Amino acid sequence: MVAAPRRVVVTGLGAVSSIGTGAAGFAAGLRAGRSGAAPITAFDTAGYAHATGCPVTGFDAGRVLRRVPAAGLGRAARFAAAAARMAAADAGLTDADLRGARCQVAIGTTDGGADELDALTAARLAAGPAALDRAAVRRVPAAALPAAAARELGLTAAEAITFGTACAAGTHAIGDGLDAVRVGDADLAFCGGADALCRKTFTAFYRLGTVAPDACRPFDAGRRGILPGEGAGVLVLESLDSARARGARVHAEVLGYGLNCDARHPVAPDERGVARCMELALADAGVAPADVDLISAHGTGTRANDVTEARAIRAVFGDAPPRTVGLKSMFGHTMGAAGALSAVACALAIAHRFVPPTINHRRTDPECGLDCVPNEAVEADLRVVQSNGLAFGGTNAVVLLGRHGAAGAA
Amino acid sequence: MDITAWTALSPYGTGGGPFAEAVRAGRPAAAAADPADVPDTEVCLVPGFDPRAALGRRGTRAMDRVTGLAVAAVGALVADRPAGPGTALVLGTTGGSAQSMTDFTAASLTGERPFDVAPAAVPGAVMNCAAGQCALRHGLTGPNITIAGGRASGLLGLAHARRLLLAGRAAAVLCGAAEEYSPARSWLEHHGRDGAPARLGEGAAVLRLERAGTPGALARVLAVASGVDAALADVARRALDRARVAPAGVWAATPGLEGAGVPARAAARMPDARGLIGDTGAVAAVFQIAAALAALADAAGRVAVVAGADPAGQVSAAVLRMA
Q1: Residues of A in contact with B225 (CB under 8 A)
Q2: Fewest beta carbons within 10 Å, which of A19, B121, B189, B226?
Q3: Residues in domain Ketosynthase family 3 (KS3) (chain A) (predicted)?
Q4: Tens of pLDDT, residues A220-270
């Protein structure tokens, strides 16, 4: 253990989502309880009984990127690089600031360039493997995502690391960014996650019967599953000392992180493992359960996840748990970006003093029994907020953010 | 951070013993023409490896090869010393099983209905399938991380593992990587290098990492440094700076670091894992570290530098001191 771990704060936020882009646009979408649901057009959806998702529409990465031509990047890499650029701008970091800094770029993703691999598979079926588009082949690897973000920011000395931990990947990336700053590996961490809609993952969830026909309703008695989404979230983390020295605005403090593995089931979450992960994060943050004001749940809106997660929350927080929102109701399940967009939302909720709602809500499932802040955002003074990320493979991650300077969060 | 054990499931067969012996002898692994008929490609397969034969029939019917390789290699280290609850797994990959993923999409594209895919194939269509199966089969309830860094995975994994240890999130880290040979991978690699000739390899290798000062350590990881589109020598120089090691004092190093002031003779002392067992993708750097540990076992106190780069842009270097 490091003797006196550095305090780490969030000074920049970038977001690409179906409900709004950039810190301000995303915050407005969250506050309004906007829905990003729309027909999926990223691939041919003929033959599926339903194909509603939360696609990013009308977003032109070329208007955000300054160094890297968007045309050369896969869709997820574009999202990652754009979110990183927006986060740097939000943090007030100029290229000159970045040139001398030791940086980490940590991006979580479920699929990397799997949308490109889908297209290459179709091409192989049509014309054989010898004629594949070589530029598309180079857009497949997940490692291209943080590399694109690092190039966009001119960070040739950065550690550009990809977390491939499926739907917890964005949360893992933020936790590693916290550690990179805490232990002194980096002065600045650009961390988050990115994914693009693809046939492979849509089909996987669809086949498991976990894609909802119309809307995602976390913790609702009538929930039918996820709506697959896409986008990216990136946070700029730095030490409190560094933020103070350059007079940066602090959105929130990263209080702690926990990660573990259920080691119980290939795809289903396990109550005990999830509860243990929350306990690890609380202990790392030095925060008592009673001090947590809000949980941004993994909250996929599937039958299995929501009951298991709710039980785990009650196991840790008792019979009167904090408000627990399912943000995927608004912008869908963005896979590797989910934990990142959740953390961006938590930081915005703390900074702008509101609780983003769980939309599409009709009747809370008594088996879940949580106050999910149905349908309308509420004003709230949030001191400590928790963000959960759970994934296939039983791998879990939880981060805790707090209002900078709040009593009990210091 | 110390390396206290390692294992390899390689084209030389099962276990660290055969790998170390062949590396010390400089004996290249057997290569065969690529079964996928990819032009100018040879392959070095893990001889006789089959997930069902290696791991038994339970739960292996739909298991892809990369998952089988990872589960078997991690199992060898866990059998050597049981993993406690504070043991993390950090597993490198390029992108899981390219074959499983392309097969899954192909089933969707060619089936009567687009969702006529096997439910059992779903877990293998996700990148962290191998790490999850390792946890499930070996009871690893600690941090479970998949690093998708291609050929830099092993070195990025070291950097991440070091942070897990320093931050107190794990008492030990099983840090490795796995890569399978498959026709899908072969064709992707072929196009990715513009059709240049290649010798592909496969396998899995895992290091056990513990806090510095652990008794019985084989080597200490003094530092890791990384970059994007950076020269190998520049990244190695930063790693040496962090390790407070003068470049002239490096005993063995992967080639190409002369620009960092590493003596040319250092490259001659470093075994060439890629030359011996082929391009093993995500496992390349882990096999290279294992090769260094094998070849330099008698070079106590000497410093070795292992550097690697992925075509996606990641460049990393680690500085090790042999115990």
Answers
A1: 159
A2: B121
A3: 5-403
A4: 999 999 999 999 999 999 999 999 999 999 999 999 999 999 999 888 899
**Residue B286, C-beta contacts closer than 8 angstroms, at least 6 positions apart:** B92, B153, B154, B157, B175, B176, B177, B205, B206, B207
Residues, chain B: 323
B70 interfaces chain A, CB cutoff of 8 Å = no
State how far the alpha carbon of B259 is from the alpha carbons of B193, B232, B315, in Å: 25, 9, 15
Tell me which residue of A339, A163, A194 sits closest to B131, measured CA to CA: A163
A298 is catalytic: yes
Question: A268: nearest CA in chain B?
Answer: B123
CB < 8 Å to A161, chain B: 147, 149, 156, 159-160, 226
Could you state, in order of their start, the residue ranges of all structural domains in chain A? 8-245, 256-402
**Which of B298, B304, B297 has its CA nearest to residue B321?**
B304
Query: A8-245 architecture in CATH?
Result: 3-Layer(aba) Sandwich (3.40)
The radius of gyration of chain A from alpha carbons, rounded to an integer in Å, stands at 20
* Structural domains of chain B ordered from first start: 2-210 (3.40.47.10), 221-322 (3.40.47.10)
Q: In this complex, which of B149, B187, B188 lies closest to A162 when CB atoms are compared?
A: B149
CATH homologous superfamily for the domain A256-402: Thiolase/Chalcone synthase (3.40.47.10)
Contact criterion met (CB < 8 Å) for A176 and B36: no
